[in-house]
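ok new one. same drill as before - structure tokens go in, u give me an amino acid for every spot. 206 of them this time. try not to just spam alanines like last time pls lmao
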């Protein structure tokens, strides 16, 4: 695990819900394989320092854009959290390969392609804690008005055989004991069909 950045977080929140919907519907919707990986990576977040963790999951995936084009995804200094300037997709691939040299080039290529646009997420998503999907134009239920953390997910990149996956998870923590951070995860699909973690790169922490 490598911690690369410590930075202030800036959110873009002052655009219309209509713009958000247009961007979120601009790409193909995630299939069942992506939701399997989402559930696998969310299952790793099982040590939230709260007696009864409440987690909100943003219902729109991250994207690799900057400025208004990225809305409604959160931004770091006006640009994507996936690779922060001066980093590029190639930089992140190199960082991942330092820890996991067997990363399939087609996995990363698929990740970059899919994350050029945001898409909407939907239930059911199985998690080890109570959660609710939240997004622009909607209010969380009373139970989730003050969550412990909010999670933002990227699209999932797969290799050509569908046996390797990369996903990015951005965690906004409202707990003093837990950092806000962005992490890349590499998964491999076992013969049993279960997705198992093989690497984690903490790209930034605050």
């Amino acid at each position: 695990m490598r911690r690369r950045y410590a930075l202030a977080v800036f959110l873009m929140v002052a655009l219309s819900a209509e713009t958000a919907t247009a961007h979120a519907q601009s790409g193909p919707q995630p299939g069942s394989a992506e939701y399997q990986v989402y559930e696998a990576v969310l299952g790793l977040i099982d040590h939230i320092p709260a007696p009864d963790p409440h987690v909100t999951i943003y219902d729109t995936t991250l994207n690799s854009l900057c400025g208004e084009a990225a809305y409604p995804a959160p931004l770091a200094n006006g640009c994507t959290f996936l690779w922060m300037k001066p980093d590029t997709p190639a930089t992140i691939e190199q960082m991942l390969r330092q820890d996991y040299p067997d990363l399939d080039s087609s996995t990363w290529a698929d990740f970059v392609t899919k994350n050029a646009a945001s898409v909407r997420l939907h239930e059911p998503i199985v998690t080890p804690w109570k959660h609710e999907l939240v997004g622009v134009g909607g209010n969380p239920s009373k139970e989730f008005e003050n969550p412990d953390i909010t999670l933002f997910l990227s699209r999932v990149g797969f290799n050509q055989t569908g046996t390797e996956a990369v996903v990015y998870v951005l965690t906004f923590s409202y707990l003093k004991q837990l950092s806000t951070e962005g992490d890349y995860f590499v998964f491999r699909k076992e013969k049993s069909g279960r997705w198992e973690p093989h690497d984690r790169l903490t790209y930034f922490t605050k």
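The longest strand covers residues 195-205. and btw Residues 17-205 form one domain.
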